[in-house]
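Write out this protein's structure.
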Amino acid sequence: MFESDSSLDDELTRYVLDHYGRYCTEPEDLALRVLNMRLKAEHAQNPVIQRKLSDFRGLELTSEAQDLVAAGRIPTRLAIRERLLRDHADDIFLNYCAECSALCRTPTARMCVSCGHSWHDQNSG
């Protein structure tokens, strides 16, 4: 079985995968898609929808993607995040608040949702 507790999926992981997922390899992308479909199937109320989501129609998983899926949702997401941060360090901008050091929601955010600090009036560079 796989993990479904999104509280274990930290802010940094969500930020990197949501905004820099384009740097994922094909097996990583496939594994993430399958793991997301499994999570949706687990929470679906309708048994027909559960079955359709569990089919993974049209997805041919390579052995590398299968290994990632077998590792589970959280470990796979963490491993992909770490690889992206390591291999694409020059391409990934981690937008931290200058006041409280919280990670902002997006790379282009100009307001911190944690402390409310805003830097909209500053030049964008």
